[in-house]
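1st attempt posting a full record on here, be nice pls
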Amino acid sequence: MSHVKPGYNTLDAMMTPLTPSLEDGWSEEKTDEGQWDDAQARFLAAAGVVLTSSLDYEQVLSRIAHLAVPLLADWCAVALAEPSSVPRRLALVCASPDQQALADTISCYQLPANAPWLFPRVISTGQPELIEDFSTHFFGQHTFDADYLELIRQLKPYASFTVPLNVRGQTRGAITFTMAESRRKFTPALQALATELTRRAAVVVDNAILYRDTQRRLAELGTIQRVAQAITTSVRLDQICETVVNQLSQVFGYTFVSIYLREGEELHLQTWIGYEHVLPVIHLNEGVIGRTVRDGKAYFVRDASTDPDFLHAVSGITQGIFVPIRYGHQQVAGIISIESSGEPALSDDDLKLLTLLADQISVALVNARLFARVEDAALRFRSLVETAGSVIVCLDPMLRVTEFNREAERVFGMAREAALGRDYLRTFVAPADRVAFAELARTTTTGTQPFSLETTIALDNDSERTFFWSLTWRQDVRGKPIELLVVGQDITARRHAEEARLAVERKMFEAQRLESLGVMAGGIAHDFNNLLAAILGNASLLLLDLPQESEIYQSAREIELVTRRAADLVGQMLAYAGRGHFDVQPLDLNAVVAEMIGLLRISVNKKALLHQELTPDLPLIAADAAQIRQVVMNLIVNAAESLAELGGTVTISTFLRELTLVDLATFHTFPEVTAGTYVCLMVTDTGIGMESASLSRIFDPFFTTKFAGRGLGLAAVMGIVRGHRGALTVKSTPGKGSSFTILLPVDQAGTTFLKTRSRPSGPSKPPTPPPNRPLILVIDDERDVRSIVIRILERGGYRTLSANDGIQGLAICDQLPQPLGAVLLDLTMPQMSGQEVFYQLRQRWPTLPVVLMSGYTTEEMTSYFHDDSPIAFLQKPFTAERLLNLLHQVLEPRE
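the predicted structure (as tokens):
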């Protein structure tokens, strides 16, 4: 009976009697050196039949083991040497059928590589080993696994003789003959016969291996020849790699084969076979594959479990060979690998084969890349001609077409095949330009420098394009012109871009003009507020001193009302200048628009239909609600008035837009405006529209197309939008209507961009005069303002001093024997500004109350100061009550 390890062929006719029987005179004694008796000779003859029966040496060795039992021993075992691993047990044959299960168990038992069993020792030394008494020699001197020792004891070995399979200086394996129940001894004759049998078996094994190696070499040569043929007949690297992989799989039976090519710091899968799931990309720091590329050398992983870098793409893989693909000393360009689950086991021959193929693939890779460069150069040249964006036409000396690129086909509306051979002048040049073109072509033959001209071409779609033509003659080695290269560039877009650039310059000029107007309006408003301060102050004093029933009181009241209207007008001028008063809060634009539409429906033109298209859930904006209401009202009222008597529709819509600086270039913008998210308000009407002359001045202050208009409505809109860091634009077509679009930036997390300061509230009537009559210093360069302020203060029970500039004011403060109660300080003064005077006062008298006065708004005044600011701000013009109430609040803790 026998046991052959899984994975090897068993014998289907194992029990055919090939050996002599014991009755034939078997002798365990050897007569003369090198001579065998008849029984021994017949035994060796039978062994010769077995040894020559097949080239499958593993099958032959298994039959030899059956032949040796029981004639030479009770048990016979065969093991083959394996490179870099423990010997592989091929067969274990026992004489007694009852012990077959024990044989199977012993054959399947896996011993560690360092276990002291007989086969490794004999194979290692190449010398036979005789154990005459197992009980004393084997069990007493060797330490095995307890379970394995128990199995050996059940076998009941008495003696053993192990002979190496030696041939040509190599040990291919070993055969062990073991005596058990028979209690026979290994006589010299038995040892000689066993040795002779083993020697002959070794020769057969060696011949079979040589035959196998020869066949492998032939297969390798065939594979290399086919790969070489693929390299010489194709420059497609993918086809060559596929040929290599298929040859390795079909000829050599490799199950898992893959080729990766390097791209930067990654390896990309080129082709593979055998894998169900394969890694398409492997980084250079991953796996044995990455290590192979990094180190630039091949790796043979004989046991995957011992290599921590091994990537188990498929379960059960135990071995792998990884060879770099590199041409000469160049950088590693890729890797070829084979992996195995152990059947068949990989060997050094596989490593050699893969190395040869890697060299061939590297040559193919170089060839493919060289061809790719040549092909790329040709394609690039053709691409330059076809897709350069220029018309390229080649002409012979008779000005007939010899080349006609794709752009020329598009521009002239003629296919290349139809254009070739045609007279270029008669076919493609306008009659008005033919003489100039022919003369230019003639003069260019005298040199190699290009000449140029511009022409206009009428296309089939009735549009005209402007082209810049460059003409260059190509000459032969004798300097004779042989080909005229005509290159035409469509400069229509360049012309349009130039026009666009001029438009941007005009826009910038317009923005600068508006900015200048804003500065001028702000300056006028400031100076006008100083005048109004004197008028309003005097009027308010009159109202305090006169009885209400007197005619003079009524006149003073009218002066005060008119002055307040003038102040409102100045406020609109300040708004245009972007210096209006803003009380900034997070604001819902939709709510404001809906509110204003509800209020204006009953007041605007009755023939105007107000239609709203408000996008829901818009983000909040940071804005002054009153100012935004004014913007909405001005736009809706203007739109409704533009409908005149015919009536029409005014559409108010809101939406959200993400705008870049390129987008914002089409709007009226200001330096503070940046790219980002904007909430948009659009007011569109179907009214009479505007001409370009009116459209260019629509935001100018005091410009109006209305008979009774003041021209500050849209100017105020622009100022308010500017103050909110927004942008706006207007489009209008005469007879069709206008559209105004306002952009307001989204409030970012509730932040605001304008400082606000609430005005001190106080009683509507002047407060009671202070009992201690504080001394107040008034510093203002305007004589009328100083005069009225002093009169109001003295009327309110204060003592006063005045100075016409900051230098005089500081000098007065230095000379005073007693402390001041407060200082009323103008912001804008010559020589020394109010800001400078304030910091001087704060440095000398830190606790001195300072009230800042200006024709600008509170916000504008606040912007001049940071951490340290005046105790209060007073905007001109103001009434006597306003001044006295504010001063009372400032001094109340001190009085």
